[in-house]
Design goal:
By secondary structure, the chain is an alpha+beta fold. It has 25 helices and 32 strands. α12 runs antiparallel to α15. It is flat and about 200 Å long. The chain starts with a helix and ends with a helix.
């Protein structure tokens, strides 16, 4: 209970000399109630209005992104409205709450207090009014307090909001709840509009601060957030560089947003987005190297250990049950690494070894997709790891190829066959053997390789000295390392072992015999038949002798054909005999050098197995077997050295080539023999390292011997190939070209004369038609004066006149005949006679027109005759050149003879001023000259090829053999066929690895075109 209730029956207390009555206490209490109700009502209304206005402004700004000026205006208007609302809803209602209003409200509430409280309050506050005594005042106060004391204890002022305020409060509550979903900074944007607000409230910017992969394309995008309904557009992108900020253009713009693709980002880049007066914060793109293991190696442990470098899109093949270890060194610090296999439910954790490599192992059981999942120390993950396909296969049988020799080759028992092979197996090779099946005797095999890898290639020099004459079959056999070994055979190669040295000696004997026969034929023409027969026999023997120089054999054959076509009475027979003698004199030194080179080649073939056996002994591999190989190769080298010495001693004692070869080979042969002796002693005492060193020196000395022989052969080339024949052939080709050009010029001039002739004939025809037109005009005038002529005849005459006037005759002859018959039938004989005369003149036409009138045709005829004479001289020159050099130019000579006849025909026609008859003959002559020129070029190329092949044996590499059955010109080439080594079929391993590594390098897309152009240039 209030204090005034507790002191109802107590005497009034005095405060500062005054008594605080019950009326005063209750009046103050009612006034506080009124103030509280007014404050609650005004504050509620003000808060509701403020919340609604604030929510409306926030969501309006969120939807429309109001500019700063409008937000400033809204802030000022809101502040003024708040002040006015506080004045109107708070200050004024509180000021209206006074004593009198409170007491008047109490009198209205309780009727028994009516007309008591207000007078009592007035009497208690001021001086006594006039005419009112103190006793009356006290009595009135006592009565008022007595009545006031009987009033029930109820509040006088209660706050009961009206329905409109309740609805407003509900709306304000909803507005307050909606502000909970307002974005951060929404209130600060309105309450502090002078501060810069972030653009990210309305625009979503991607990728923000990011660390993209180095050299990858990055897409910058700015898209409007959902719910923004303001005016879209006007977004600008700014890129920060060293010189400051520059504005960039978007590559794509739409109502939803904008985007820009940055190609090949390789340096940090700052960027921001602006719109109106809003600006986003500055974002930074920092390119980082992609997470990668360099290189990714797969180590396979099975029958044969293998290491494979995995590249993009590369498949990994492994045998079932093999242990596969994936390893690699990261290009940047990693926190974790996993190896994911599609065949396993969980990834395999890759462990880091002390060397810094990450590795994980598994057993290959089934095919799967492999990928690496890497996580950097800063938390980045590898976005697009390369996927490698693991293919698990069963063990397959091996494959083996005989690379050389292929097909059938021809060799002598003194030769060595270079055998090259290539063998592969998916698991590994245990042995590669060479199977030999001679024509007579038992087959046997030679082991070429033991315990190889998955791929093996090599060379082996097979000596033929121990095989009988006849056919020798070669095959390769490969066996793998599987638990149940599998084998494979290669295709067979055939070596025809023949006594080639005997055939070569017979050819040399025929050479000496042919030389004597040619000398005898030069002394007496009666010996021509014997010389021709001996030259033909020599040519046949050389073509069948693989050791004879192929180019010399062709030259001898051509000379033999020329002698066979000669007769004792032919003045050119002696020239052919002298050319044959010169050929035999020049060719013999070159043939001797080729024989010497062959002996040096056999010696080099013996040095190769000797060097390989000595190297194997130095490494301590199979000492017993390799020592036997070395001793056998040493014996073969001694035999080759003796053979070379004998060939050198058999060279003629005279001649620059023989002397040069003898002087150049004397010292190397002595050194090679001393090194062979030292090598033999090193093998006997077991000093294999010294033996390996001596074997290498021996190989260099033998290579020096072959180079010396080649230099001696080059010095003899001038004697074997004189330049006069080549110069004469070049002059003949130049003369032929001038003949063809001159004939073409004559054809053009004859065509011009014919065209002028046609023009003159056309002019004569036009003149004749003009004259006939005048005569037809006179005939029409005569017909008009005769009344007896029918109308149809007159119309035909006028049609004829029109054709004559147009200078185009089509129906005029028929019309003239019709008009003449009609005129004669009607009795107009004069008109009929004139029409018949015009028709006769029209049918007769113009007479023959001469080719020219100034003698130009005769001049061209003389020039054509001169050209024919030059053609005949060129034919004679080619015949002489063919006899002297053996060059085959028969087709060219025949073409010149035919062209000469056609040129003579054309000259005769031109002299008769008949260009029409001359043109076909001239064109045919040009056609023959062109065809013959091509034949001459082919003959010259063949001659050059034959002469260049004179030195071909000295340029071949070791391991060159002949194919059987070659016949030189008109057949296959008779030169040596180089047998490739096994390494010639394989690209260098270092090159393959470099190309694979370069393909894995990441690069900016803008550089692709330059890289493609670079590879295109080096490929060309």
């Amino acid at each position: 209970m209030k204090s005034w209730r507790r002191s109802r029956n107590r005497p009034a207390k005095r405060y500062n000399g005054a008594v605080k009555s019950l009326l005063e206490r209750r009046q103050r209490h009612w006034r506080r109630q009124a103030l509280r109700v007014a404050l609650l009502d005004g504050a509620t209304r003000l808060c509701c209005a403020a919340l609604l206005a604030l929510a409306a402004a926030v969501w309006l700004d969120e939807a429309l992104a109001l500019p700063r000026q409008i937000r400033l205006f809204l802030l000022a208007a809101g502040a003024m409205a708040l002040l006015y609302g506080a004045w109107r809803l708070l200050i004024l209602p509180l000021a209206r709450v006074g004593e009198r209003e409170t007491l008047a409200r109490a009198e209205a509430r309780w009727p028994q207090l009516r007309s008591l409280l207000l007078p009592a309050w007035e009497l208690s506050r001021g001086p006594l009014p006039e005419g009112v005594s103190r006793s009356l005042r006290d009595a009135h106060l006592e009565q008022a307090e007595a009545c006031l004391a009987g009033v029930a204890d109820e509040p006088l002022f209660r706050w009961r909001p009206d329905p409109r305020l309740i609805r407003a409060a509900a709306l304000a509550a909803l507005a307050a709840l909606s502000l909970g979903w307002a974005p951060a900074g929404a209130f600060g944007r309105l309450l502090l509009p002078w501060n810069q607000a972030p653009l990210e409230r309305y625009v979503s910017i991607s990728p923000g601060d990011a660390r993209p992969e180095w050299a990858r394309s990055v897409t910058l995008s700015a898209s409007w957030r959902p719910g923004f309904s303001g005016e879209r557009g006007g977004l600008s992108l700014w890129l920060g560089q060293e010189g400051g900020w520059r504005r960039a253009s978007w590559s794509e713009e739409s109502s939803r947003g904008c985007s820009l693709v940055l190609d090949g980002l390789t340096a940090p880049l700052r960027y921001r987005v602006e719109w109106r007066d809003l600006r986003s914060r500055v974002y930074t793109l920092t390119p980082v190297l992609p997470l990668r293991l360099e290189p990714v190696l797969a180590r396979l442990r099975g029958p044969v250990d293998e290491e494979v470098a995995l590249g993009p899109g590369q498949d990994l093949e492994a045998l079932r049950g093999a242990l596969v270890t994936i390893s690699g060194r990261p290009n940047q610090p990693l926190s974790r690494a996993w190896l994911r296999l599609s065949s396993l439910p969980r990834p395999l954790r890759m462990r880091r070894d002390p060397a810094g490599e990450y590795r994980a192992s598994f057993v290959a059981e089934t095919g799967a997709a492999l990928s690496l999942d890497l996580e950097a120390a800063d938390g980045r993950r590898q976005p697009d790891s390369a996927v490698y396909q693991l293919k698990v296969r069963r063990d397959q049988p091996p494959s083996v190829q005989l690379l050389s020799p292929l097909g059938t080759v021809l060799a002598s028992p003194s030769d060595s066959i270079p055998v090259s092979y290539l063998a592969r197996d998916d698991a590994g090779l245990s042995r590669v053997s060479l199977l030999l099946r001679p024509a007579a005797g038992k087959p046997y095999q030679i082991t070429l390789l033991r315990a190889g890898g998955r791929e093996a290639s090599g060379d082996y020099a097979l000596p033929l000295s121990g095989f009988p004459l006849g056919r020798l079959e070669l095959r390769l056999k490969a066996i793998d390392t599987a638990a149940a070994p599998q084998s494979a055979l290669s295709a067979a190669a055939i070596v025809d072992v023949e006594d080639l040295q005997g055939g070569h000696e017979r050819a040399l004997r025929l050479w000496r015999r042919a030389r004597g026969s040619v000398d005898a034929a030069l002394e007496s023409s009666q010996n021509l038949a014997a010389a021709s027969k001996d030259m033909s026999a020599l040519a046949a023997a050389m073509r069948g002798d693989p050791y004879s120089n192929a180019a010399l054999a062709d030259e001898v054959g051509a000379s033999a054909e020329g002698l066979a076509a000669s007769s004792p009475g032919n003045p050119r027979t002696r020239e052919r005999l002298e050319a044959a003698r010169a050929l035999l004199e020049r060719g013999r030194p070159l043939q001797d050098l080729e024989d010497l080179d062959r002996a040096a080649e056999r010696l080099s073939q013996a040095a190769s197995p000797l060097e390989s056996a000595a190297a194997a002994l130095a490494r301590g591999k199979a000492a017993t077997r390799n020592l036997a190989r070395a001793q056998a190769a040493l014996a073969e080298a001694r035999r080759g050295l003796d053979s070379l010495q004998r060939a050198l001693e058999s060279l003629p004692k005279v001649g620059p080539a023989s002397s040069a070869a003898r002087n150049a080979l004397r010292l190397p042969l002595g050194q090679a023999r001393s090194q062979l002796d030292a090598l033999s002693r090193a093998l006997e005492r077991g000093d294999y390292r010294q033996a390996e060193l001596l074997a290498r020196r021996l190989s260099r000395e033998l290579a020096r011997i072959q180079r010396a022989i080649g230099q001696a052969a080059g010095g003899s080339r001038e004697a074997a190939l004189p330049d006069w024949a080549r110069l004469r052939l070049e002059r003949a080709r130049a003369q032929w070209e001038e003949l063809a050009k001159g004939q073409a010029r004559l054809i053009e001039r004859t065509q011009e004369l014919e065209e002028a002739k046609v023009q003159r004939r056309l002019e004569e025809q036009r003149r004749l038609l003009g004259e006939l037109e005048r005569r037809q005009e006179a005939a029409i005038a005569a017909a008009l004066s005769s009344a007896r002529l029918p109308a149809g005849a007159l119309a035909a005459m006028r049609a004829v006149r029109r054709e004559f006037k147009a200078r185009a005759v089509r129906l005029a002859p028929a019309l003239l005949d019709r008009a003449a018959r009609a005129a004669r039938a009607s009795g107009a004989k004069e008109v009929a006679s004139e029409e018949e005369a015009v028709a006769a003149a029209l049918r007769q036409g113009v007479g023959p027109v001469a080719l020219d009138a100034g003698g130009q045709a005769e001049a061209e005829g003389s020039e054509q005759a001169s050209l024919a004479g030059r053609t005949e001289l060129l034919r004679q020159e080619l015949e002489s050149l063919e006899d002297e050099t053996g060059a085959s130019a028969r087709e060219a000579i025949a073409a010149l003879a035919s062209a000469h006849r056609k040129q003579a025909q054309a000259a005769a026609s031109l002299n008769r001023r008949d260009g029409a008859a001359a043109l076909p003959a001239q064109r045919r002559a040009l056609e023959l000259l062109t065809r013959g020129q091509n034949s001459l070029e082919a003959a010259a190329a063949g001659q050059s090829s034959r002469r260049l092949r004179l030195l071909e044996p000295f340029k071949r590499s070791t391991g060159a053999l002949r194919l059987p059955g070659g016949e030189g010109e008109g057949g296959s080439e008779r030169g040596f066929v180089a047998l490739p080594a096994a390494g010639d079929y394989l690209p260098p391993k270092q090159l393959r690895q470099e190309l694979e590594r370069s393909l894995r390098e990441r690069r900016p897309a803008s550089q692709d075109a330059l890289i493609k152009e670079y590879f295109k240039r080096i490929a060309q």
